[in-house]
Amino acid sequence: MQTGELMSVREYLSTSFRPDCDYVDGEVVERNVGERDHSRLQAAIIAYFYARRKEWGIEVFPEQRVQVSATRFRVPDVCVILAGSAPGQIFTTPPFICIEILSREDRINGMQERIKDYLAFGVPHVWILNPQTRSAWRCTAEGMFETQELRTENPEIVLPLAPLFE
Predict the structure, then answer these.
(1) HSE-up of 145 (CA within 13 Å, CB side)?
(2) Which residue range is the domain that position 156 belongs to?
(3) Phi (first) and psi of residue 45, to 5 degrees
(4) Residue 3 in domain
(5) Number of independent structural domains in the chain
(6) What residue spans of 18-145 are helical by DSSP H?
(7) Is 101 among the domain residues?
(8) What is the pTM of this model?
(9) Closest of 107, 96, 87 to residue 150, by C-alpha
(10) Does residue 17 form part of some domain?
(11) What is the chain's pLDDT, residue by residue, as a tens digit (166 residues)?
């Protein structure tokens, strides 16, 4: 859902939104968040990564602004960076993983532009999870692939879905 409000990048970066909003080519774009299923899954993912951060050499961030291009900022539900990459207060280098959690109003096809932004920016792992259907997709330039387990290499990270959806 878009607010229809046009503003400059500078204005966007100096404005606080609750919840935080994306910024796409001058428009502030609202994100669907705030429902129990969404929050619960987001918390479970963050806790899972946080508990393994030292072992995997990662850091995990909820709702972190990521500048994917000069005029686009996305706020993934969860993003993971490699420890020590120190990207700053707003990430201007690609996170290792960007995770989006669907809310009831979200549709997979509505996520296409976000996915394209992440992939074009160089995010190597883009994942979408749906708490209502208990399903997940890994997204690549070749398409979206439903999966029962999300994983990466270098470092090897495995995110099993069943315990997260319990």
Answers:
(1) 13
(2) 35-165
(3) -65, -45
(4) no
(5) 1
(6) 36-51, 53-56, 112-121
(7) yes
(8) 0.91
(9) 96
(10) no
(11) 445 568 999 999 999 898 889 999 999 988 877 689 999 999 999 999 999 999 999 999 999 999 999 999 999 999 999 998 877 899 999 999 999 999 887 777 778 999 999 999 999 999 999 999 999 999 998 999 999 899 999 999 999 999 998 8
Residue 111 per-residue DSSP state: G
120's enclosing H/E stretch is helix 112-121
Q: CA angle at residue 89 from 32 to 47, to 5 degrees?
A: 60
Provide the residue type at 139 as one letter: C
Please, what's the largest Cα pairwise distance for the chain? 44
Q: What CATH code is carried by the domain that includes residue 152?
A: 3.90.1570.10
Which residues are bridge partners to 91 per DSSP? 66
Phi, psi (degrees; rounded to nearest 5) at 65: -65, 130
In a domain, 27, yes or no: no
